[in-house]
Amino acid sequence: MKGIDLLPSGLPRPPRTSPLRIMAATSVCAFVLVVVLLYVVKAQEVADLRRSLKAQEEDYARYAWLDRDIQETRKSKDEVLAKLASARKQVDGGLPAQEILGNLSRLIPAGVRLVQFGLADDGKATIDGEAASLEAVASLMLTLEESDLFEDVRLTGARRAGESAGLLAFQAQATLSGTGGEKP
Predict the structure, then answer these.
(1) What pLDDT is attached to residue 165?
(2) Each residue of 103-112: pLDDT tens digit?
(3) Helix (H) or strand (E) holding 29
């Protein structure tokens, strides 16, 4: 059977769409659909990442004080360990009493006699003695100050020991060098 054209001959015929055009249009539509789907998926991933980042920033903000406290505690720990090491070094060696007393006997000028020498745990020394004159006491104070054993030597009191004896009783204080930890 042959097809019969029932349309009048003067009417223009509708253009026939070629299969190549249909394939091209279908390909373009499929490409646009795939790109839109990829955009939607990636936009959703970005939104999820932003929500996650916001939640993590809020968590960090809640615990930021803890990070500062940890840093301050580490600094304090380092300071305490340094002081402990310094104290151990001093305690392990002990107070060199024999060395102090040996050097002290060489520092005492003529005309001065020590009655009592006390050394406290904090390195403070108290010195009680008798001298023939105030010049001898001054000489002792200067000698102690210039030595590397003591620092901050002060005469705290001086009085006549007796009318007939002519001796001068004195009290002095000093700080033992290199004890008591680090100086501020």
Answers:
(1) 67
(2) 788 888 888 8
(3) helix 19-93
Burial 66-104 (b: 16+ CB within 10 A, else e): eeeeeeeeeeeeeeeeeeeeeeeebeeeeeeeeebeeeb
The span from the CA of 181 to the CA of 83, in Å, is 7
Check if the beta carbon of residue 175 is closer than 8 Å to that of residue 125: yes
Three-class DSSP labels, 69-89: HHHHHHHHHHHHHHHHHHHHH
Judge whether 174 and 143 are in contact, CB under 8 Å.
Answer: no
- Cβ neighbours of 56 (radius 10 Å): 10
Q: Give the range among 31-45, 51-65, 79-93 with minimum mean pLDDT.
A: 79-93
> Is residue 126 within 8 Å of residue 144, measured between CB atoms?
no
pTM of the model: 0.45
